[in-house]
Design a protein that fits this description.
Number of strands of chain A: 26
Largest interface: A-B, 61 and 60 residues
Helix content of chain A: 10-25%
CATH architecture of the largest domain in chain A: Alpha-Beta Complex
CATH superfamily of the largest domain in chain A: Fumarylacetoacetase-like, C-terminal domain
Radius of gyration of chain A: 21 Å
Largest sheet of chain A: 8 strands, mixed
Enzyme class (chains A, B): hydrolase
Pathway (chains A, B): Amino-acid degradation; L-phenylalanine degradation; acetoacetate and fumarate from L-phenylalanine: step 6/6
Protein name (chains A, B): fumarylacetoacetase
CATH topology of the largest domain in chain A: Fumarylacetoacetate hydrolase, domain 2
Number of domains of chain A: 2
Oligomer: homodimer
Shape of chain A: globular
CATH class of the largest domain in chain A: Alpha Beta
Structural class of chain A: alpha+beta
EC number (chains A, B): 3.7.1.2
Distance between the termini of chain A: 49 Å
Strand content of chain A: 25-35%
GO molecular function (chains A, B): fumarylacetoacetase activity; metal ion binding
Chain lengths: ~375, ~375
Amino acid sequence: MAVAEKALSYGAFSVGDGRPRIGVRVDDSVLDLSGTAAAHRRPYADLVAGPVLNPLMAAGPEVWAEVRDDAREWVLNEPLIALSDVTPHLPFDVADYVDFYSSEHHATNVGRIFRPDGEPLTPNWKHLPIGYHGRAGTVVVSGTDVVRPDGQRKAPGDPVPTFGPTRRLDIEAEVGFVVGVPATRPVPLADLDRHVFGVVLLNDWSARDIQAWEYVPLGPFLGKSFATSVSAWVLPLAALDDARVPPPPRTEPLLPYLEDAGTAPWGLDLALEVEINGTLISRPPFASMYWTPAQQLAHMTVNGATLRTGDLFASGTVSGPTREQMGSLLELSWGGRDEIPTGAGKRTFLEDGDEVVLRATASNGVSLGEVRGRVLPSRHTR
Amino acid sequence: MAVAEKALSYGAFSVGDGRPRIGVRVDDSVLDLSGTAAAHRRPYADLVAGPVLNPLMAAGPEVWAEVRDDAREWVLNEPLIALSDVTPHLPFDVADYVDFYSSEHHATNVGRIFRPDGEPLTPNWKHLPIGYHGRAGTVVVSGTDVVRPDGQRKAPGDPVPTFGPTRRLDIEAEVGFVVGVPATRPVPLADLDRHVFGVVLLNDWSARDIQAWEYVPLGPFLGKSFATSVSAWVLPLAALDDARVPPPPRTEPLLPYLEDAGTAPWGLDLALEVEINGTLISRPPFASMYWTPAQQLAHMTVNGATLRTGDLFASGTVSGPTREQMGSLLELSWGGRDEIPTGAGKRTFLEDGDEVVLRATASNGVSLGEVRGRVLPSRHTR
């Protein structure tokens, strides 16, 4: 594959004790974009001066294309730094973080596990992409350790809740979409790529016992808010143009603002991988997602909610139809019933010291990189 | 009351086309704190240079006290600007916004309206302060108009949802707590005033039909995310020291991190008022809140979630035990059944053009000011 066709992704990095700069990653090398753009006196140099991508993200598709054209040339002709010599930082300041629930397979599995006698999907599920706001302040960059959270846990048979470390620490393999250009009006389906700068892999760490006790009636809170990991390098959305595919057939009519039949599709053919302690345990297919990022963005703004640069919205757990395609341990262990072999023994949920890596590759050959995190013991037990 | 004992509150204001500056409000006048601190070469002058309170908020209680001592003198001896001559701005950059659900009367009313045959409170309600994350990017300053949101609405008898303006636009009368000093460890009950800078009034606008259709299983989303109004002037938490009262008796034992028996109490005796179109329709008593802000902050951080300067957490709707003390139209109209007289006719929910004002006064005589907003027609119908 020629370099010109290779994916270039954007991040924030430092070397030694230096201030974070903006870099372009290509394979296992990094171009110092901050320094190179300044040296070449590019008009956008201030936007990529660091320490975060937000100014570039806000500048819009024309500037993004200009920077990408330059970067394609510079990764061939300018000095590069070895990826192993840089420290990655959170690549953008997160404004609001929204998490969706857009895999029909995941939502169906969760429904079957928790409500075995009821309909697995709630009545609203096929009419709108269900979502909720998460904690923006605890979004962390790949490589950050995750401390096992403490909280209230109550099993169905317990008379009262107890306090302590979660016993059901889980992952959720997701894809996150990073908003660049703000909006003060609802964003129609066709405008996704005018607002979204790029894509990250995202691990929505979840404490299932804390979540189960707290979430009725207002949704997940402390079961999710301790940490959400994102990959260090943001892949421009434009790099996935060749990986766009139609989403699954819709089985309920959609209201006009969500109706994407006849529009250019925004399903994405991405092959995810979930690895725990070096063992590949699942291959979730993103093309199976029922709701697309274009529908998620249209829904999120249809009530007049404004968008800011740095808004992050995630797909929800990606799960395919088969066991080996499930994107959470809750599903892979079927609610803790079955054990999953990993490189450090069998698991239902995560143990202290476990390391989780999510990776993804698009059908056009472009890599989305990885998001990595290791579990540390709870504060309570140390 | 001597000026030295009067409440001084902090905000961001501009005059004409000027850049927002930090001001101190006393009664109907404003001191230009940015200019006065600079002129007096105070060491904290950079922290109050504007355009927002965040640097001052981050500086901590010792600096807050120093600024307050100066401001008490300056409002007597320096020139003041008439409140009517300034334009207020959102006084702080909101980091994460969390909304609690801490009034037993409100939660019980909502349970009775929506689940008349079941237990009104969910089993977790007396064990933890239920909360969820809201949208930080749509927190707006008092006086900002609120556009009626569009969205999916489905009444129980409808076969499918329809799209259009909410038919059940509501208010929620709340008190918000503004975090100044960050935290990377759980915040114990006794440390509330080391982290919280001040207090605002907050109107958590709610579209009940959109919320009812969307909120199972992950909680409120578009029914709340279109706008949340806060008062323009932040009252320092220290100004409410004399208004602290014990919270209501607890009817379930609390886990140690929430157990506040034997600690200095953080109930607050604040008398709220809800006015629609000039008619006082309710007087919610904040002292009736079951969960205190100290418990909310301890709970919010017990899982290791970090705090940032600008984090805003709100009490949830304040409702007392009687009809004339309810803090939402959902309760006042008992789910839309009863009409409420206002200065512009009877209401169940809000009509376009309605103006809502929330006010509050503490038992020590200190005013929390007001939060005001007017309803504009939806984008869909204009």
